[in-house]
């Protein structure tokens, strides 16, 4: 989309917002601003919907969610402790950026610059991430190589029949498809944070892969031209029709700073007969400082529906960021012989807390699932695996294998494993293995005697521990993820 | 090449090395023998710089540098290799990855360019062939699921690839059958028998010294060297025992 289009769309949005403002409750917020006022009311929801030029049905859907949400209570069963969130003290749409524009990378916090360098991020891309003045054009050049690459990329997808758009665009351009699936995998009432997301989601991604199509490339949010500022209440919907395949990459290994402390994303996946979806995430939101001050609260609902026979959904996640992580990418295995997979590495350091895992709901006969979870705790952090494997009464011959390993660095951190297993069919085979270990002094000294310094030694051992998960990541992501693990654990030993 | 003077060291406040002095010249293979609890493993760990082994006195000069002033990885980069009595498992990390990272870290420490994946594999293959060892061992994870003998052979492969100037081999022969002992002994000769290199060979038994002929033999007892001689000293220990040999005036 070029600047002209964008300006036009902004104008449309403004007009729509003005109209909405006139009609509804005499609302008169300053519609010239790019952000909604602090706090959450029906007006906020209307503002967001108007700003995005949404059709009536979408606004109604959001409002319904908002009304539900008002009567819901924040869940407190996770092993997480954080101060009470004041939902009226947050921004819900494009909060004003406090980030100072930099004249050049020389003005960047040397600590952040060091991390960028260590990750091997090209200079141009660093400028974009750091918010250097005039870096916009560089973004297009560096991140997407060039406009033409991005364009040919889009054309190639179009030829294959794959729809890959922001969810806002999809709501306008493919309303029937969106209507058919939005909220069908994660119902509007699913949980407090998901309902909140339904009311205020900012943007996200929509992918539709038609029958029999193998998506010709890994889809990444990197490549989405209008991926801006969508991190706070992201909404993603991926539908893979019969016999299709798609691999989707989400996130970024570069440290992501965001003034919005509260994040609540929803991701819904649908796989029809013989379809396969591979969803990979690297999450590196700001974890707060080493004293535990600041950092993102990340409450995410991710669920995949293996609707058709022999369908397959595979979640792979590398979670290193956020002060608080509450996240359970799950699979509902309705199809016969369908397959669900969950591969996870979660790292917590300093005062970070992660309560993450998965649910594998076996409703289909012969459905299978694999869970490999690797938790790494350092500093004074807490890392919990929480998982549920359920087998319905009429689901014969279900298999599940679960492996939960925890690695501790130091003696002030915690690792916890909370598996729930509910089996209502006696033919099921459920295996659960769990280990907890520490990086031993023997291992460290051995690696150091061979020439690695202490941090290199820790990185090597940790990457070995996480290998079964890292190898599930697409190649280019895996290399970055390895470096990221090392950086996340810097200063955690010795 | 290695000069240890009046070294004292303790673990958890207990003195283990008690005024140990020893010198190994370039081109020399120096065997250290001694009864259990004499401080043999402690000596190797102190030379390697293992945390928890506190040096309380004395000095160690290695290739003109103060060894005790260096971090463990710096000692490795300066050419010191420790063959472990109990090599450690590192799950999920292949020998190829481990050794490439280790070698490149050492090269970096010496101001040399890192080896690319291809260059490293070439070196690894050469060394494996030289030692008549299977490359498959290198593809497996570091010591994971290795038998005792395989671990010791893997140590030799590591030594071959890292190509150190000086090796301290701590009971590298323990737990080996006759064939494996021959492989390990040949490995030491192939890699380390060189006019510019040195070896401190810590062992209990003569049988390794039949394969790797030492230039000198020293007896370590109660944390110090009590006797030094030629290869015949080891033979006498074998036939007469520590008590008899050590009871003689020096």
UniProtKB/TrEMBL annotation, chain B:
One of its GO terms (molecular function) is ATP hydrolysis activity. The keyword Disulfide bond does not apply. SUPFAM superfamilies: P-loop containing nucleoside triphosphate hydrolases. InterPro entries: ABC_transporter-like_ATP-bd, FeS-cluster_ATPase_SufC, P-loop_NTPase. Residues 2-247 form the ABC transporter domain. The keyword ATP-binding applies. Keywords: ATP-binding, Nucleotide-binding. Belongs to the ABC transporter superfamily. Ycf16 family. This is Fe-S cluster assembly ATPase SufC.
């Amino acid at each position: 989309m070029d600047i002209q289009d964008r300006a036009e769309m902004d104008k449309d949005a403004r007009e729509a917002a003005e109209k909405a403002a006139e009609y509804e409750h005499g609302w008169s917020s300053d519609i010239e601003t790019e952000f909604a006022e602090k706090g959450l009311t029906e007006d906020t929801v209307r503002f967001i919907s108007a700003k995005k030029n949404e059709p009536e049905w979408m606004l109604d859907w959001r409002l319904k969610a908002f009304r539900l949400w008002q009567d819901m209570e924040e869940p407190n069963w996770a092993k997480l402790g954080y101060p009470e969130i004041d939902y009226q003290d947050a921004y819900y749409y494009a909060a004003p950026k406090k980030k100072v524009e930099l004249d050049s990378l020389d003005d960047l916090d040397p600590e952040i610059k060091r991390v960028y360098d260590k990750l091997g991020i090209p200079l141009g891309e660093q400028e974009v991430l750091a918010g250097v003045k005039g870096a916009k054009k560089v973004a297009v050049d560096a991140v997407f190589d060039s406009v033409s690459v991005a364009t040919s990329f889009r054309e190639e997808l179009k030829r294959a029949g794959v729809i890959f758009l922001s969810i806002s665009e999809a709501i306008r351009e493919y309303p029937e498809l969106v209507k058919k699936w939005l909220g069908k995998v994660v119902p509007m009432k699913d949980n407090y944070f998901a309902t909140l997301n339904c009311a205020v989601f900012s943007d996200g991604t929509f992918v539709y892969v038609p029958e029999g199509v193998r998506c010709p490339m890994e889809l990444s949010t990197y490549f989405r031209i209008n991926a801006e500022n969508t991190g706070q209440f992201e909404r993603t919907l991926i539908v893979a029709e019969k016999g299709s395949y798609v691999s989707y990459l989400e996130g970024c290994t570069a440290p992501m700073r965001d003034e919005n402390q509260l994040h609540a994303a929803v991701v819904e996946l649908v796989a029809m007969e013989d379809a396969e979806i591979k969803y990979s995430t690297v999450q590196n939101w700001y974890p707060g400082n080493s004293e535990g001050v600041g950092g993102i609260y990340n409450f995410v609902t991710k669920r995949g529906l293996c609707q058709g026979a022999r369908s397959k959904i595979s979640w792979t996640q590398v979670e290193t960021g956020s002060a608080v992580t509450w996240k359970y990418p799950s699979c509902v295995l309705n199809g016969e012989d369908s397959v669900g997979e969950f591969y996870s590495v979660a790292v917590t350091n300093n005062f970070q807390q992660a309560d993450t895992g998965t649910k594998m709901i076996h409703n289909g006969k012969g459905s299978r699932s694999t869970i490999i979870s690797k938790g790494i705790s350092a500093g004074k952090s807490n890392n919990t695996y929480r998982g549920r494997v359920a087998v319905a009464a009429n689901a014969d011959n279900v298999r599940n294998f679960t492996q939960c390993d925890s690695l501790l660095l130091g003696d002030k951190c915690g690792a916890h494993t909370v598996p729930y297993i509910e089996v209502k069919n006696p033919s099921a085979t459920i295996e659960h293995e769990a280990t907890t270990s520490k990086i031993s002094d023997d291992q460290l000294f051995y690696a150091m005697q061979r020439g690695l310094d202490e941090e290199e030694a820790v990185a090597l051992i940790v990457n070995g521990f996480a290998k079964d998960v890292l190898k599930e990541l697409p190649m280019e992501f895996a290399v970055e993820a390895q470096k990221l693990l090392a950086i996340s654990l810097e200063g955690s030993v010795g | 090449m290695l000069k240890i003077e009046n070294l004292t060291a303790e673990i958890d406040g207990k003195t283990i090395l008690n005024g140990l002095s020893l010198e190994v010249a370039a081109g020399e293979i120096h065997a250290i023998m001694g009864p259990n609890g004499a401080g043999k493993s402690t000596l190797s760990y102190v030379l390697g710089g293992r945390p928890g082994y506190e040096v309380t006195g004395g000095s160690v000069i290695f290739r003109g540098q103060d060894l005790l002033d260096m971090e463990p990885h710096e000692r490795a980069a300066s050419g010191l290799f420790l063959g472990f009595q109990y090599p450690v498992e590192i799950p999920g990390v292949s020998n190829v990855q481990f050794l490439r990272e280790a070698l490149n870290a050492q090269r970096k420490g010496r101001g040399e360019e890192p080896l690319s994946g291809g260059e490293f594999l070439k070196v690894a293959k050469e060394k494996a062939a030289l030692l008549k060892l299977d490359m498959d061992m290198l593809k497996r994870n570091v010591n994971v699921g290795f038998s005792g003998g395989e671990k010791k052979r893997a140590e030799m492969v590591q030594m071959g690839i890292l190509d150190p100037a000086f090796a301290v081999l701590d009971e590298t022969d323990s737990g080996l059958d006759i064939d494996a002992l021959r492989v390990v002994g040949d490995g030491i000769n192939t890699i380390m028998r060189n006019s510019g290199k040195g070896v401190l060979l810590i062992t209990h038994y003569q049988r390794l010294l039949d394969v790797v002929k030492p230039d000198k033999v020293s007896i370590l007892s109660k944390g110090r060297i009590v006797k030094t001689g030629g290869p015949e000293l080891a033979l006498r220990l074998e036939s007469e025992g520590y008590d008899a040999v050590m009871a003689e005036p020096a």
